[in-house]
Amino acid sequence: ALPEPAGNVNTGVEYVEPVSEDEKKLAHILQNVLECDRVGLNDNFFELGGHSLKAAALVSKIHKEFDVQISLGEIFKAPTVKGIIENIRKSERDIYSSIVPLEEKDYMDLSGEFCVYPVSSAQKRIFILERMGSLGTAYNLPGIMTVEGRINKAAFENAFVQLVKRHETLRTSFDFINGEPVQKVYKNVDFSMSFDEASQDCAEEIIKEFIKGFDLGTAPLFRAKLVKISEEKHLLMFDMHHIISDGVSTVILVKEFIELYRGADLPELNVQYRDYAAWQNKLFETDIIRGQQKYWKEVFTGEIPVLNMPQDYPRPTMQSYKGDKITFDISGELAENLRSVAANTGTTMYMVLLAAYNILLHRYTGQEDIIVGSPTAGRPHADLENLAGMFVNTLALRNYISGGKNFRYFLDEVKNNVLKALENQDYQFEKLIDDLELKRDLSRNPLFDTLFVLQNMGIPETDVNGLKFIPFEFKNGVSKFDITLEAVEMSESIRFNLEYCTDLFKRETMESLAKHFEKILEHIAKNPDIEISRIEMMTEDEQKQILSGFNDTKCEYPREKTISRVFEEQVEKTP
Question: Which band of pLDDT confidence, cut at 50, 70 and 90, is reported for residue 11?
């Protein structure tokens, strides 16, 4: 019955008010990044809810406000206002420069209907993938929300129209000109929201029909539909291609849609995505990127491993992107114990879970050299904070694991690798693939087959003008990688979404994998100093089945059978 606590998380640290102008300015930046009301001089950034991606955003904002560049490692070593200010004062001055908007007249087509601009690195890769073979809906970013209450249809459609006017990426198509991919940004596009009526029982079928492929040569690469279930219940559906958007952009667009529906006036955007693409292409010519290129090439010297996960089916010659997903939660107690492990080791939940996932893959494959992909927001400049577009970059995280290491030691290695990768994240994954000159294999993704994601930013449940917007869970039937493990931090527990390729794995195989992962988490939460070889991932039921199967040696067989054949048959009987 108590009211929700207002203000901040109580970290047990006595509040000390920032005094100097620099301390106050920095505290305000931390409040903005952490979305909290108050940050004291000695409050720990990570104990207040910070993580590695928020730390990257903090570094960007510090550069804008203080004209200095500090590293992520320095944030981890001194994660308080007091400690960060000391690092700022010791740092050399590095003048922050805004992204300069391009002059439309320099890029205008003769028709005057659109402008032609260079694409970003990520856009180029997706466009070429699409041209090599249809991706179907593998690179769609659909979102579905249940809307409860009486709606104003005209206001709904107008909010979408305003979004399309506001973000150029929603008025963009793609083409090849003189052998190079380009983006065409139209001044106006023909956009309208479609309407339908249906029963709740038909919801899944309607969603399935709504999510379909896009023609990258035709704008907009964005659609929306409102389905009336009853007078006070609707399904709001929207879909867009990944080449014009990403996960953070989806959250931005939903929040802005709700604000526009409410009738709010949004501040003007200083830059558009085409300005970022041009800025990024210039960045690739700088010494900064050459230094980052050197780092990544050193990470991937020598033979590059291919993850040899046991499969239920032979790998198809062409990647199908067919997938399914299972969801499982860990207990609040286990989640809290894992948070304690992170706090006591100077790491984050992301690093703890990534280390545990590497152990899982090691135990399944026996491999000691493992590469896991992990997306990062890819917004290295403060001017990009509220802009929709395809910014996300994928980091290829290579870790070396052996049974003789203890978990705490391995976690520290993972932490250092993650920090170095984030400090070199401006170097695009697509460029790395080109540098490594990997042989193209149409049956799998380049460099890694599995992805790990910690989702800290989702679409929130929202009330506005008497309406309630609630995210709607649905099956998309897509898997971009062999296996993707997504962790979502809830208020108490942690939810995991395990997406897998149905052309490679059976559902029961993935259900067992999920249980094995949870067992690994239990062991490291109980004893962070445990030797990796001593981490037991089998469940009690699996252990009983194996013991009873091997101990049940009563069987009739001809005398000519060898002992080895008897043993083989026992193994075949054992689940």
Answer: low
